[in-house]
Amino acid sequence: MSELFALPAMASADGIRRGLFSSVELVQSCLDRISKTDHQIGAWAFLDPDLALGQARTLDERRSRGLAVGPLHGVPVGIKDIFDTADMPTAYGSPIYSRRRPGSDCTAVSRLREAGAVIMGKTVTTEFAFMAPAQTQNPHRAGHTPGGSSSGSAAAVAAQHVPLAVGSQSNGSVIRPASFCGVYGLKPSYGLISRSGVLHTSDRLDQVGVFARSLEDTALVTDQLTGFDNGDGATEATPKPVLTDGYHETVPVEPRLAFLSTGYDHRLCDDTRSGLDELRKALEPYSELVDLPESYVNLIEHHKVIYESDIRASLADSLSAHSDAISPQMTDALARAETYPAQAYSSAQSATALAKGFFAELFHDYDAIIAASTPGEAPATLEQTGDPVFCTIWTLIGLPCLSLPILVGATGLPIGVQLIGGREEDARLMRTAHWLEQQISDSNS
Question: Is the pTM of this model over 0.85?
Answer without folding.
Answer: yes
